[in-house]
Design goal:
The chain is an alpha+beta fold. 30% of the residues lie in helices and 27% in strands. The strands form 2 sheets. A 5-stranded mixed beta sheet has the order 4-1-7-5-6. Strands 2-3 form a two-stranded antiparallel ribbon. The structure holds zinc ion.
Length: 191
């Protein structure tokens, strides 16, 4: 488990955004894991870890939101300790870094792009599991699935994820907005 504080210095902005993308190829005879949920299918996603394309995209979105190193840098495929690893381990490390940087998750949204199997019947289960892993309510977890029309990627699963963070409530002194600024803002809003 990486422990070094190797992310760039994080300016404590009020909100931050993160984005992650991943793809894996289908292989016969291995379990299919998406969002930490095993789906019934005769193929699974190949990769050095458990191939969970959605958890990898979410992990990179979390890491990107605080300008931390990406998933491949923290958990290199060349390192045998990550062979067949549960991708929840990657997500939890990214979440730990987000919390340590002084932020909490507002909401996440993801799109899955795959020809099969159908994700619709499993969306609620995946949302619940992702929400549990991230420690946020299921209504803060968006999961959408699309088929790859005209993309020629029928033997792959692709995931895109975005995440919004907000600064954790801290000392009141730091959160107080200068009176002048808020006046300006409300004046602007009236226009
Ligand atoms: Zn991956």
């Amino acid at each position: 488990m990486p422990t070094t504080n190797d992310q760039r210095p994080t300016t404590l902005l009020t909100i931050r955004i993160g984005y992650g993308w991943d793809s894996h190829e289908f292989k016969p005879g291995i379990p299919l894991l998406i969002g930490g949920v095993q789906l019934p299918y005769d193929k699974g996603l190949g990769g050095h870890s458990d191939g969970d394309v959605l958890l990898h995209a979410l992990t990179d979105a979390l890491l990107g939101s605080i300008a931390a190193p990406d998933i491949g840098s923290l958990f290199p495929p060349s390192d045998p300790q990550w062979k067949g690893a549960d991708s929840a381990v990657f997500l939890k490390e990214a979440l730990r870094r987000v919390h340590a940087a002084g932020y909490q998750i507002v909401n996440v949204d993801s799109s899955l792009i795959l020809a099969a199997p159908k994700i619709g019947p499993h969306t609620a289960t995946i949302r619940a599991r992702v929400a549990e892993l991230l420690g946020i309510p299921p209504d803060c977890v968006g999961i959408k699935a699309k088929t790859p029309e005209g993309m020629g990627t029928d033997n792959a699963a692709i995931a895109h994820s975005v995440i919004l963070l907000e600064k954790k409530a801290g000392k009141k002194k730091n959160n107080a907005r200068p009176a002048g600024k808020s006046k300006k803002k409300s004046a602007r809003r009236k226009r």
